[in-house]
């Protein structure tokens, strides 16, 4: 049996909703013992949000909390606080994404954690870093709007748009994992834990770095790779154009449904085969189209010509035909296309799990594959499912555990 990459690492998971649970789920998939601390009687708020099965944990919760153990602890009473402190003594990482100052006001400060366990690292996700916005709350779309994503997403003549990809929450969670792993690695040299902080605004802006690149370029003149006719002192919304050196567009395909599109990129070596498919061999050497530089001022016409051909094919036919001649392209896959893609299940990225209260559901697997640490995806825990088990691991006797339940501490 293979040893997991993070086997022996214990994470005290006080995160909730999406940003933090994304990170701790990745750590659990790599073998860490992730102990999710929840409020007795309620738990993570997402357990009850967006429910599709009455009185069962929602998919919002189950899809973000695989492979974890759940303990309920009430830190508002003395014995509950004592359990919490005992957990801190036995863990390597504390992860949380409460609003600014919440744990500090409860008496659980970085200094207190260090007193309890000098080797523990304390990792926090907040909406913003130090400065004018430090005390402001952030959610997915707020982070996108304040991190540069929304102002550069959409079409020029439309309002800013948030993306369907959860770059504010899950994107921050991935950054969070990097910080936690770096702290654990450094502890091997120093013997002590450290403070880890990730701001959602910062993570989104990091993912928008090419737009910040273009912000500096646009101050020197028009961005010729963009389809926009007018430029100002900020990066514009450019629809489906990449704004990079390889022009691309989403082109309509047969039979013309809502997602019957293929994204096609025109690289220098791809122009000739594209024009042959389109029956426009005359444009292969035409001075207005023969070179990437010449095509820049004719991009709408170029893609219109290609679209006349793609409209005669399905998006999958377009992908196969163009990939055969090394023209980069990809069909616009709907969530229905993806959840019905058998290859996703065959390679273990989509996994069907059985849940005791909601029945079967589809779970995303780990997007990172390690040759010596395969991931066995398990269902999310029920609220407090492992409370007694974890308390016994902490050395509590059956009588101690019963008393904690009677006091409402767990």
UniProtKB/TrEMBL annotation:
Identify the pathway: Metabolic intermediate degradation; oxalate degradation; CO(2) and formate from oxalate: step 1/2
Q: Does the keyword Transmembrane apply?
A: no
Its top-level enzyme class, in one word, is transferase
TM region(s), chain numbering = none
Q: Which residues bind substrate?
A: 244-246
Keywords of the record, alphabetical order, are:
Transferase
Q: Which domain of life does the UniProt lineage start with?
A: Bacteria
Residues that coordinate or bind CoA: 16-19, 97-99, 105, 137-140
InterPro entries given in the database record? CoA-transferase_III_domain, CoA-Trfase_fam_III, CoA-Trfase_III_dom3_sf, CoA-Trfase_III_dom_1_sf, Formyl_CoA_transfer
This enzyme catalyses:
formyl-CoA + oxalate = oxalyl-CoA + formate
Q: Which residues form the active site?
A: 169 (nucleophile)
Listed under GO biological process in this entry are: oxalate catabolic process
Q: Which GO terms describe its molecular function?
A: formyl-CoA transferase activity
- EC number(s) per entry: 2.8.3.16
Q: What does this protein do?
A: Involved in the catabolism of oxalate and in the adapatation to low pH via the induction of the oxalate-dependent acid tolerance response (ATR). Catalyzes the transfer of the CoA moiety from formyl-CoA to oxalate.
Q: How does it assemble?
A: Homodimer.
Record-linked NCBIfam families: oxalate_frc (TIGR03253), PRK05398.1 (NF003809)
Q: Record's family? A: Belongs to the CoA-transferase III family. Frc subfamily.
The molecule here is called: Formyl-CoA:oxalate CoA-transferase
Organism name: Paralcaligenes ureilyticus
Gene of this entry: frc
């Amino acid at each position: 049996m293979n040893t997991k990459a993070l086997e022996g690492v214990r994470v005290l998971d006080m995160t909730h909703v999406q940003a933090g649970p994304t990170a701790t789920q990745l750590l659990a998939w790599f073998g860490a013992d992730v102990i999710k601390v929840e409020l007795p009687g309620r738990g993570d708020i997402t357990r009850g949000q967006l429910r599709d099965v009455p009185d069962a944990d929602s998919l919002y919760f189950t899809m973000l909390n695989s492979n974890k153990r759940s303990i309920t602890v009430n830190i508002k009473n003395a014995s509950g606080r004592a359990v919490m402190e005992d957990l801190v003594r036995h863990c390597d990482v504390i992860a949380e994404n409460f609003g600014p100052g919440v744990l500090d006001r409860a008496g659980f400060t970085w200094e207190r954690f260090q007193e309890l366990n000098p080797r523990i690292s304390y990792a926090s996700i907040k909406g913003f870093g130090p400065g004018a916005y430090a005390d402001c709350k952030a959610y997915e779309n707020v982070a996108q709007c304040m991190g540069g994503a929304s102002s550069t997403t959409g079409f020029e003549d439309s309002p800013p748009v948030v993306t369907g990809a959860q770059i504010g929450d899950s994107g921050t969670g991935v950054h969070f994992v990097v910080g936690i792993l770096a702290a654990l690695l450094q502890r091997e040299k120093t013997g002590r834990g450290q403070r880890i902080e990730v701001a959602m605004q910062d993570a989104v802006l990091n993912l928008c770095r090419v737009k910040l690149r273009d912000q500096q370029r646009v101050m020197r003149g028009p961005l010729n790779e963009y389809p926009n006719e007018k430029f100002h002192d900020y990066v514009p919304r450019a629809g489906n154009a990449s704004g990079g050196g390889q022009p691309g567009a989403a082109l309509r395909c047969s039979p013309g449904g809502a997602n019957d599109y293929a994204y096609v990129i025109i690289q220098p070596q791809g122009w000739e085969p594209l024009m042959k498919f389109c029956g426009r061999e005359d444009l292969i050497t035409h001075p207005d189209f023969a070179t990437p530089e010449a095509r820049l001022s004719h991009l709408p016409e170029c893609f219109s010509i290609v679209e006349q051909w793609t409209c005669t094919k399905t998006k999958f036919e377009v992908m196969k035909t163009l990939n055969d001649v090394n023209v980069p392209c990809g069909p616009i896959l709907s969530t229905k296309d993806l959840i019905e893609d058998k290859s996703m299940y065959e390679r273990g990225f989509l996994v069907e799990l059985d849940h005791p209260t909601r029945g079967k559901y589809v779970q995303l697997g780990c997007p990172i594959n390690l040759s010596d640490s395969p991931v066995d995806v398990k269902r999310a825990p029920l609220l407090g499912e492992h409370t007694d088990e974890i308390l016994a691991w902490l050395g509590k006797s059956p009588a101690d555990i019963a008393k904690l339940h009677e006091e409402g501490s767990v």
